[in-house]
C-alpha cells in the first residue's frame, strides 16, 4: 500500500511539473507564433498544447466506461495518428486551421490539467491506470522536445526562453576510443519506475569485442568529411541516402550554410559560426552512416551503445544512467532543464561519464545506432498505436538531447526516426570491431 501511495504522489508531482513546463516553453510566444507551421515536419505550438491535452482524454477513455470526449472538432484536429479515434487531421496542414482558436486551446489545456489533477488527487488508482497516466506524462515530455525542434524552425534566436543558463566549459579531453569486451549482455530496462513497452523485456544479446568513441563526433571532425567531398561521392552513401543527397541537394547538416568560406548555422544562439567543439547536430542516419564509412568505422548497434553507457564492468551490474542509478542532475548531462538551449562542447560533463569512460551519452544530441527499430524478443504492446505500429523503416537513437526533459530519459530509452530525418537534435559516435 505504501508503494501504491508513493507511486501516486510521484505521479501527481510529475504531472504538475510537466504541465507547468509545457506552459513555460510557450510563455513568451506572441499569439501569432502559436498558429504558424513553417515546415511539413513541424507542428504549430497551438497544436502541441492541444494534442498533449487530448492524449489525456485518450487515457481517460481507456479507464472510464463511455467516456465522452470534450469536442468532436477538437478530437479531429488534435488526433495525430490514432485511427481508433477517427481519421486524423493532415499533419502538414495543421498550420492552416484557425479553429480551435489559441484561446480555446488554452482553455482546454487548463480544463484537462484540472480534471486530471482531481483524478490523481482523489481517486484510488490501480496500477494499470497509474501506468497509463505515467505514459501520458512521458508523452507530453516527448512533445516538449518536439516543440523545441519546432521553435528552432519557427523562431531560432527570436525565441526568448523563460530560463537561460550559461553553457558549462569543457575540461581536458580524454582518449578517443574505448575497447569493450564482448560476451553476453542483458539489454533493456531493469528499474522499477515507468518505462515504455519497447524497452522491455530485458534479454540477452551476444556482442563481439568492440571499440566505441569516448565522445560524440564533433563539428570539427564532421567538417573534415564535408570538406573532403563527402557529400559529392556516392561511394560513402547507402543508395537511398545518395538519392536523398541528390534530390534535396544536401551539402552539409541541416541548418548549415557556407558564407564566405565559413560554415554557419542558425539556432537558438542566432546565426553563428559553427563551434568546432560541439557535437555535430542535425544529421540524418544516412549522413551518420556515410561519415562512418568515410572514416573507416561504423555506427554502434543499440546493444553496444547501451552496454558502453550503462554496464559497470567492475561491479558486474547495469545502472539506469551512465553515472549510476541517480536521476539526472545539472552536473550530469545537458538536458532540457539545463536550459542551455544548445549542445555543450564535448567534455563539458565529466561527472556524467559512463563506467567505461564514455562522455555525454545522455543529453546534448540523440545518437544514431545501426539498429532497426523493432520489438525486443517477447515484446508485448503497452498501448495500441503508440510505439509498435512504427516497427518498420526506422532506426533507433539513444541518449536524449539538450531538449529532452530529464524525467523522460534513461539508458534503456529507445527513440526512433526515419533514416532521412534531421530536424531533431541528432548526432552520433563511431564504433569499430576490435
Ligand atoms: Fe503525440
Number of domains: 2
Any idea what the CATH architecture of the largest domain is?
A: Alpha-Beta Complex
Q: What is Rg?
A: 21 Å
Please give the share of residues in helix. 25-40%
Strand order of the largest sheet: 12-11-10-13
Residue share in β-strands: 5-15%
Order of helices and strands: HHHHHEEEEHHEEEHHEEEEEEE
Say which molecules are bound, naming each kind only once: fe (ii) ion
Q: Cα distance, first to last residue?
A: 51 Å
Q: So how many helices? A: 9
Please mark out the parts with pLDDT under 50 across 5 or more consecutive residues, or reply none. none
Q: Given this structure, which CATH class of the largest domain is correct? A: Alpha Beta
General shape: globular
Q: Would you tell me which CATH topology of the largest domain applies?
A: paralog of FGE (formylglycine-generating enzyme)
Estimate the mean pLDDT confidence.
95
CATH superfamily of the largest domain: paralog of FGE (formylglycine-generating enzyme)
Helix-strand category: alpha+beta
Write the layout of secondary structure elements.
Elements: H1 2-26, H2 45-63, H3 72-78, H4 102-122, H5 127-154, E1 177-180, E2 183-187, E3 203-207, E4 210-213, H6 219-227, H7 239-248, E5 257-259, E6 262-267, E7 270-273, H8 285-295, H9 302-310, E8 311-312, E9 317-318, E10 366-372, E11 395-398, E12 415-417, E13 426-427, E14 431-433
Parallel strand pairs: 10-13
Antiparallel strand pairs: 1-4, 2-3, 4-14, 5-6, 6-7, 8-9, 10-11, 11-12
Helix pairs in contact: 1-4, 1-5, 2-3, 2-4, 2-5
The structure holds fe (ii) ion.
Fe (ii) ion (FE2) binds at residues 51, 80, 139, 143.
Amino acid at each position: 500500500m505504501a508503494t501504491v501511495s508513493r507511486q501516486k504522489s510521484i505521479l501527481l508531482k510529475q504531472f504538475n511539473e510537466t504541465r507547468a513546463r509545457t506552459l513555460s516553453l510557450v510563455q513568451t510566444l506572441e499569439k501569432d507564433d502559436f498558429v504558424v507551421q513553417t515546415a511539413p515536419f513541424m507542428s504549430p505550438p497551438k497544436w502541441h498544447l492541444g494534442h498533449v491535452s487530448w492524449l489525456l482524454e485518450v487515457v481517460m477513455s481507456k479507464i472510464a466506461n463511455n467516456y465522452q470526449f470534450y469536442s468532436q472538432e477538437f478530437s479531429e484536429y488534435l488526433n495525430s495518428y490514432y485511427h481508433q479515434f477517427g481519421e486524423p487531421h493532415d499533419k502538414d496542414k495543421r498550420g492552416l486551421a484557425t479553429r480551435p482558436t489559441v484561446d480555446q486551446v488554452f482553455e482546454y489545456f487548463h480544463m484537462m490539467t484540472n480534471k486530471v489533477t482531481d483524478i490523481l488527487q482523489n481517486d484510488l488508482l490501480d496500477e494499470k491506470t497509474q501506468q497509463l497516466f505515467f505514459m501520458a506524462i512521458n508523452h507530453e515530455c516527448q512533445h516538449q522536445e518536439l516543440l523545441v525542434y519546432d521553435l528552432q524552425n519557427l523562431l531560432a534566436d527570436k525565441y526568448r526562453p523563460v530560463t537561460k543558463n550559461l553553457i558549462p566549459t569543457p575540461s581536458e579531453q580524454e582518449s578517443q576510443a574505448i575497447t569493450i569486451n564482448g560476451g553476453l549482455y542483458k539489454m533493456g530496462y531493469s528499474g522499477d519506475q515507468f518505462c515504455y513497452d519497447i524497452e522491455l523485456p530485458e534479454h540477452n544479446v551476444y556482442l563481439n569485442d568492440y571499440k566505441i568513441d569516448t565522445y560524440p563526433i564533433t563539428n570539427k571532425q564532421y567538417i573534415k568529411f564535408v570538406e573532403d567531398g563527402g557529400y559529392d561521392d556516392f561511394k560513402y552513401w547507402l543508395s537511398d541516402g545518395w538519392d536523398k543527397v541528390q534530390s534535396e541537394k544536401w551539402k552539409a547538416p541541416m541548418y548549415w550554410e557556407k558564407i564566405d568560406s565559413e560554415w554557419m548555422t542558425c539556432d537558438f544562439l542566432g546565426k553563428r559560426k559553427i563551434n568546432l567543439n560541439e557535437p555535430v547536430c542535425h544529421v540524418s542516419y544516412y549522413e551518420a552512416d556515410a561519415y562512418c564509412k568515410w572514416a573507416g568505422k561504423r555506427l554502434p548497434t543499440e546493444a553496444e551503445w547501451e552496454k558502453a553507457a550503462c554496464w559497470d564492468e567492475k561491479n558486474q551490474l547495469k545502472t539506469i544512467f551512465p553515472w549510476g542509478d541517480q536521476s539526472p542532475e545539472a552536473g550530469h548531462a545537458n538536458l532540457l532543464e539545463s536550459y542551455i538551449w544548445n549542445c555543450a562542447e564535448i567534455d563539458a560533463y565529466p561527472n556524467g561519464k559512463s563506467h567505461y569512460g564514455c562522455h555525454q551519452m545522455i543529453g546534448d544530441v540523440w545518437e544514431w545506432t545501426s539498429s532497426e527499430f523493432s520489438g525486443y524478443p517477447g515484446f508485448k504492446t503497452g498501448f495500441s498505436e503508440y510505439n509498435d505500429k512504427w516497427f518498420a523503416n526506422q532506426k533507433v537513437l539513444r541518449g536524449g538531447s539538450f531538449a529532452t526533459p530529464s524525467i523522460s530519459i534513461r539508458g534503456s530509452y529507445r527513440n526512433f526516426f526515419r533514416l532521412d530525418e534531421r530536424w531533431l537534435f541528432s548526432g552520433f559516435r563511431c564504433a569499430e570491431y576490435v
